[in-house]
Automatic annotation (TrEMBL):
Protein name, per record: Glycerol-3-phosphate dehydrogenase [NAD(P)+]
Catalytic activity: sn-glycerol 3-phosphate + NADP(+) = dihydroxyacetone phosphate + NADPH + H(+); sn-glycerol 3-phosphate + NAD(+) = dihydroxyacetone phosphate + NADH + H(+)
Protein's organism: Methylocystis echinoides
Family recorded in the similarity comment: Belongs to the NAD-dependent glycerol-3-phosphate dehydrogenase family.
KW Transcription regulation (keyword) present: no
Domain of life: Bacteria
Catalytic residues, chain numbering: 190 (proton acceptor)
Any one Gene Ontology molecular-function term assigned to this protein's record: NAD binding
Binding of substrate, residues: 107, 254-255
Gene giving rise to this polypeptide: gpsA
Pfam family, one: NAD_Gly3P_dh_C
Annotated residues for binding of NAD(+): 10-15, 139, 254, 275
Residues that, per the record, bind NADPH: 14, 34, 107, 139, 254, 276, 278
Amino acid sequence: MTRDSIAVLGAGAWGVALANVAAQGRERVPLWAHEPAHAAALARDRENKAHLPGLPLAQAVAPVSDLASIDGAEIVLAVVPAQAMREVARAVRPHLAEGAAFVICAKGIERDRRRFMSEVVAEELPQARPAVLSGPSFAADVCRGLPTAVTLAAADEPLAQRLCEALSTRTFRLYRSTDLLGVELGGAAKNVFAIAAGMASGRRLGASAQAALIARSFAELTRLGRGLGARSETMMGLSGLGDLVLTCGSAQSRNFAFGEALGRGASAKDASGGKLTEGAFTAHVLVQMARAAGIEMPIAEAVDAILSARLSVDAAIEALLMRPLKAEG
Ligand SMILES: NC(=O)C1=CN([C@@H]2O[C@H](COP(=O)(O)OP(=O)(O)OC[C@H]3O[C@@H](n4cnc5c(N)ncnc54)[C@H](OP(=O)(O)O)[C@@H]3O)[C@@H](O)[C@H]2O)C=CC1
Ligand SMILES: O=C(CO)COP(=O)(O)O
């Protein structure tokens, strides 16, 4: 049986990890980098020294910088930062085959136009069949072949099944879903909550506070999910609770580490250490979406207020603790 051809857009940590997954059982997987110099360095070094040092590219991965290299791919994995998704999708339009699967692997919400990634793709790539891959998965773990399970959602269930079959390996296990919105919402929101969890850690609030923060973040996620029409099973699954627990509980997460640095007193400008922290871009738009839907998200609101310098970390903690007592839910 011939396997679906796969191309990967975005050659950062997650793009490399997914290209390595796709390379299993395939002869060639184009990995597109937007900077020709970056593609050349990847081809020379056979690793991404900046984002995933020490973890080599699989032999079948072919770094490229021209989008024509993805012509004819049956499955395209879009692994660029969320705020770059529209620009990349627009550039890809002349190269994407009619009916090709376009799998969104970024975790974020478009800040300027307040759009989910699937909406961006629907607007820019009408010929694509959109899907979302999301769940608890650090790129380095996947590259090392450690066991990982994520969710793959497409509105069309047979497509979701086909994509799960095309991408699953012995150690990278995909579960299918048709709840596209629920899956992308979990991936985008957990980054914001991970910043809050990191701040609590940086302020040394203790393990009990960490657990409370995760549970209350999950309550916010499920409230918003319900309000926007996502399924509760999705919120309970890998892309919801699973990724929330991973990202809020590990300094390996860039979002958590960013929050931790803020909690220790670093400025928002310095805290990321130059790394991509999607939650910092998503916090404000997430809060705007929640407000528009009449849904309370005090933890996400606190992160947004801190990032926009309207509140200090200590004042935010105080405000969260002093909220009126209420029934759990
Ligand atoms: N790392 C992980 O473990 C996981 C990441 N994700 C998600 O995947 C997405 C990508 O993250 P990740 O790969 O880790 O991030 P990295 O910072 O490792 O890489 C981002 C890549 O995108 C490139 N890039 C930046 N701007 C553009 C642009 N305008 N057009 C095209 N490419 C661009 C960067 O190139 P350059 O360096 O040249 O600027 C870089 O190669 C994020 O949404 C993240 O949340 C999801 C699951 C796991
Ligand atoms: O999405 C991730 C794990 O599932 C990676 O998280 P960070 O972007 O916070 O590193």
